[in-house]
Design a protein that fits this description.
With 165 residues, the protein is α+β, with helices and mostly antiparallel strands. Helix content is 27%, strand content 30%. It has helices spanning 12-18, 61-70, 100-119, 125-131; strands spanning 23-29, 35-45, 51-56, 73-78, 85-90, 94-96, 138-143, 147-150.
């Protein structure tokens, strides 16, 4: 198996952003181009550029099936306060079980994202209902993104992410 390295556009700042208390949405499609979507409940970005986005398997069935069939996935990471938004796309996605570090990342994400939402006046029950994924129901969508795009609303939206200059 070849040794991978992170693409140059996936720098430390972007990796930290993807692992922060941001909204995460995943999209895939089936052979007939019908979309499937689900919400992420945490993310880890590993040194080799592997991105592990965690989802509730009970809510992600069609997306998990599509990923297992064609390996294609897009993930959008959006800060609900600033609206800073990044999108990554991969063609090598697969479904995996979580390890202990993954479960810890989910728990930390749910606490942090929940605190952000509650900090804006919403009841604690709302983020808990949206993000609840019992440990036994969590799966990881794992990929090495090939493309990244700036999607923050404004004139740069849609532009490919580039490495440091």
């Amino acid at each position: 198996m070849p040794i991978r390295s992170a693409p140059d556009w996936l720098d430390a700042d972007r990796a930290a952003f993807m692992q922060a208390a941001v909204s995460m949405s995943l999209g895939a499609r089936d052979a007939a181009l019908r979309p499937s979507v689900t919400r992420g409940v945490g993310c880890r970005v590993l040194a080799d550029g592997e991105v592990r986005v965690f989802v509730n398997a009970a809510l992600a069935g069609p997306l998990a099936d599509d990923v297992a069939t064609n390996g294609q996935v897009a993930v959008v990471f959006s800060d609900i306060v600033s609206h800073r938004t990044l999108q990554v796309k991969a063609t090598d996605a697969r479904v995996q079980a979580l390890d202990a570090e993954d479960h810890a990342a989910v728990d930390a994400y749910v606490r942090a994202f929940g605190a952000t939402v509650v900090g804006y006046g919403y009841p604690e029950a709302i983020p808990l209902a949206i993000l609840h994924a019992p440990p036994e129901d969590r799966i990881a969508i794992v990929c090495h993104p090939r493309e990244g795009f700036e999607q923050t609303p404004g004139p740069q939206a849609g532009q490919r992410l580039e490495g440091a200059r």
